[in-house]
Design goal:
Blueprint: E1 6-8, H1 17-20, E2 31-35, E3 38-41, E4 62-66, H2 71-84, E5 87-92, H3 98-108, E6 115-118, H4 124-138, E7 143-146, H5 161-172
Parallel strand pairs: 1-2, 4-5, 4-7, 5-6
Antiparallel strand pairs: 2-3
The structure holds NADP nicotinamide-adenine-dinucleotide phosphate.
């Protein structure tokens, strides 16, 4: 439960000794930097480009995200929905639950509502059915993202073959 301040000073400058002990501590351990009698702290800020960058994304395009209801899939979907009004289809093994519905509802307030298809993408038959369903409803598909993972981290030497296969299958078979 120590409270820690990380302070970066110039070796040859005079130090604001009093202030060193009154700065608030930073729970993340980010340093305070003292330069030319001024304190600075690092901070992440969004970068905004003025120029529209060249892109391969198609406005109003159809994008399939395998594992799309997961963390990265949701963030990526938000980006293409916001920027390109993309029609996004998520594929996942779970039945659509309240959690997935909440993600869909949130993104629907930004642009076209994403849809969800329950399928195990390592299973060729199920994936093919999903493909048929998407083609029927949306026509051409403009992009596919593989964002599925089954997280079974463990050092390789301590891993049973079945665990290794389960983690690898979702990458290789999909
Ligand atoms: N988050 C990170 O820090 C990080 C770092 C490096 C790389 N990545 C990569 O980013 C991608 C997404 O990761 P994430 O963090 O978003 O993971 P996540 O939140 O666990 O999402 C992964 C999604 O994949 C789905 N999935 C797993 N097996 C599937 C299968 N057989 N068929 C269909 N869907 C399946 C899961 O849903 P169901 O369980 O319902 O199927 C889940 O929604 C992965 O390729 C991962 O390797 C992430």
């Amino acid at each position: 439960h120590w409270k820690i301040r990380v302070i970066d000073l110039e070796s040859l400058a005079s130090w604001p000794i009093q202030e060193l002990f009154t700065l608030p501590s930073d729970a993340d351990g980010n340093p305070y930097v003292y330069r030319e009698q001024q304190w600075h702290q690092q901070e992440l800020v969004p970068v905004r480009y003025n120029q529209q960058e060249e892109t391969l994304y198609k406005t109003g395009g159809v994008y399939v995200v395998i594992g799309g209801a997961g963390g990265i899939g949701e963030v990526w979907s938000e980006y293409v929905i916001r920027m390109y009004e993309a029609k996004v289809i998520w594929i996942g093994r779970r039945e659509k639950d309240a959690n997935i519905q909440a993600k869909i509802d949130r993104l629907a307030s930004i642009g076209p509502t994403p849809s969800y298809i329950m399928a195990d993408a390592t299973d060729q038959e199920e994936l093919y059915q999903a493909y048929e369903e998407i083609k029927q409803q949306y026509g051409p598909i403009h992009g596919i993202v593989h964002s599925a993972i089954v997280l079974l981290d463990k050092s390789l030497a301590n891993m049973e073959e079945e665990r290794f296969r389960a983690g690898l299958r979702v990458k290789v078979d999909v």
